[in-house]
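## retry 2 of 3
previous attempt timed out at serialization; input unchanged, resubmitting
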Amino acid sequence: MRISNVWRKPLPLLAAALSFLVFIVFSQQVNADMFSWFKKYDVHLSPAVHGKITFNGNPVANVKVFRELTYDTEYLDYAITDVNGQFSFAEKNIRSRRPGSLLETFTRQVLFLDHNDKRYILWRFTNRTIEPAKTINSLLNGLHCDLSNPDMIYDLRNQEHPAHPHVVSGICTFETETYIIGQERK
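## retry succeeded, writing output
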């Protein structure tokens, strides 16, 4: 009899401790932190793009401009230049579970075209976040890409994180030069 009485006293205490533990584990805050890999996040791959392709100042018509976007998977689409050499792409966003993981996340944007048996890299940019970058959004709204331009590397102002400039490369120049910190030839 004495042994069974000893075990009866801690049972309510053990039940209370177990209930508290269950409450903590399934509370919203802990649940969000522990199970965030199940959540899907919005990932910004590219803003809308508007540009013009020329060669020595003359419009290049009917050429495919490819946009390659990378985040876990590669997304490839293309636009065809009109008679004025103009092209555009719609904004591209996806949903992904990857930002909730411990892995490093970044997005990559590449615009290129093949013309007269030569590949031209118009724009190349890697973003260390999944959020839109204001400077990049602004510049991709007015690209001027002359196929006779040299491939350049640009250090651009990062409006969200000023201590970490964006690095962009390619043959395109921009409608506005206000974001350029420095540039050099490859």
